[in-house]
Each structure stands twice: as C-alpha cells, then as structure tokens.
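hey m, so remember when u said the tokens were messed up on ur end? i reran from scratch. heres the input so u can diff it against urs
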Amino acid sequence: MAHDAGAKARRDLVLEIIEREGEVEWREQPWDARARAGGAASTRAKRLKGEAARECATEDDSERDDFGSEMKGEGRQGKMGRGRGGEASTSRASAPRAAGDGEGVRDAALAEQTAHAMSVTERAQAINELLSARKIEIFKRGEELVYARSREEQAAKFKGLSTEDMLVYQIIQHAGNAGMWTKELKARSNLPAPQITKIFKTLEARKLIKAVKHVAQQNRKVYMLFELEPSREITGGAWYTEHEYDAEFINVLREQCVKFIYSRDRVTLEEVSDFVRQSKLSHVELGADEVLQIVNTLVYDGKVDADEDESADDGMADAPDEAFVPTTYYRKATLPIPESNAYTDIPCGVCPVINECRPDGLINPISCEYMTAWLDY
C-alpha cells in the first residue's frame, strides 16, 4: 500500500508540474510566437490532406522512437507498451500533437523539477503510467521532448480502447491518405484477421477511421483516418466518378479545349486552365496537371501543335541558365491528322498479316472475310 501511495504521489507531482508549467510557458510566449505556433499547426493539418501525410506520420513515428531511445539512455527501466507485432508503440497515449503546439513542458525542465522527489527510474515509471491512463501526451518541439496535458476531446475519443485497438489505429495513421491494405496491416500488427476485423468495426463506429474503395481494385478496401481525404491514386482523381472512368466528361473537356485553342492564334497552358475554370465545365476544380493531360491528348491526336518559345533566353550569358524554362504555346495543328485515309479505310491498311497475304497463299484477298465485308458495305 505504501508503494502504491508513493507511485500515486509521484504521478500527481509530474501531472501537476506538466499542467502548471505548460500553462505558464504558453502564456509567456510573445504574440508573434503564438501566431507562428498556430500557423505551423495549421500548416501541418493541411498537409495531412495531401501527399505529405505520410511524411508527417513518419515524423510522428520517429519522435516516438526518439523518446524510447532517450528513456533507455538515461537508464530508465519503465517501458512504453509494445504491440503484439513487437514494434514499439505509444498506443496508450492520446493522439500525438502537432510539433508546433505551444502547450507543454520540456523534458529537461520536468527532470529538473522532479529531481528532489524521485529518481530517474521513478520519473520514467510515472510518465509511462500517465501515458497509459491518457492523462498526458508526448510530442516533439524542435529537438526537445515535450509533455502536455491530454486534451479532453482527444481523451474521450480514445477512452476504453485496448492496446491492440491503438496499435491498429497508429499503423493506419502512419499510412496517411494513401491508406492501408488489410493484408499489409495484418503483417505489420501480427494480429489475427478476425481480431483486426473487430477492431475495424470499433474504430469505424467511433469515426476514427474509414474504409475507402480503391479505384484500381474495387473489390478491396483501404483504411485511413476518418478526417483525411483519399489520395488521387485511390480515387482516380478528376477523371473518375463514383470509381468509374468518366469518358463522357473527358470528351466534353477535349471538345471545349479544342474550340478555345482554335479561336486564338496561340495560347499557354495557364490560359487554357483559366478558360476551363471560368467556363465551369467541371464541378471538381482541375489543376494545371489535369488540364495538361487533356491538352496532351489533343497534341497526340494531331489536333493541336505544341511549340516551345525560347526567345526569353537570349543566349548571351557565359553559362546556360539552368533555371530557365521555355514557355510552351498551343495552336491549331498546321497539318492535322485526318480521321481516316485510304490506308485506314480499307482492311488491308490495318491488317497485321498483310506481309503474308498473296493471291495463292493461305492468307489471300479472295478468301479474306474482312475484304468481303468491306466490299459488301
């Protein structure tokens, strides 16, 4: 009982210091520093919706690894929880904060203020127990570890989840908006498939994760955090509607872009993009990359010519300008490719075995069913 009372007292002291020092540190920040901290957090939140989500997740993962190694370096005996897959995990802690958050107390400051009351090992044990109870969070600010009081809304979302639940959540979190296949998750967590299915239902019911169909393999699902938008690799981008290739939409875009280019002497990709945006041909905002794909199909079909204008580079410099990018202009094709010609009109023009065709041969024009059908037509 005395041991339990001592451990509780140490936990309470650590929690009190984190609460008190975290609030003081936040209040004492200059206004511009608060703005920068908020901006960094906002920027990170936005990145979670884009390709950099995986990098943010990897950074969070490395922060946890740094924490574990630092604990070992100080000779602490307390250990973070481990998943059944054997990989280190802070699964019993709340969701990690953004590195730019202003709250929290630095690890060095916490060590200094608890040195008189507990050993390094006891402090490590108190921290791990508070993490297990989801009363505090751990994150990184620069190169320093920072502890902060758990946010109530985050603590409520994860309350009651088991270590295995949080392990699956963290693996999915690290996948970002690219998502995580069930088979890959099973291999990383080392959990049986029936248990993973049960965990999925629990996390989906709490709106922590969601299942998304992959456009390339619609019979399979990938899982990602509930608040993330799927990447283009999963949804197919602007050219897919309800996971179906929208050929009609693409044809309309092609026709309108051709008319616009033909109505001008020459246009840039930016001008074509502005036309598409202003004409509201698409309910989804198309970026320059998508418009370039449409214009390139017109170039490949011989409807439009693409010319590079290098006149801005006068060539007078001693060394070539590596940063110079010539402007590409698009105009009506000088020699448009006809829809059909004599060679494509008759069967012989597209026959793959024409070199073997001869009057007395096995393949010959007299018995050719394609020639016969064409003549009848």
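this time it looks ok to me. The first strand starts at residue 105 and ends at 106. if urs says something different then somethings off w ur setup not the seq
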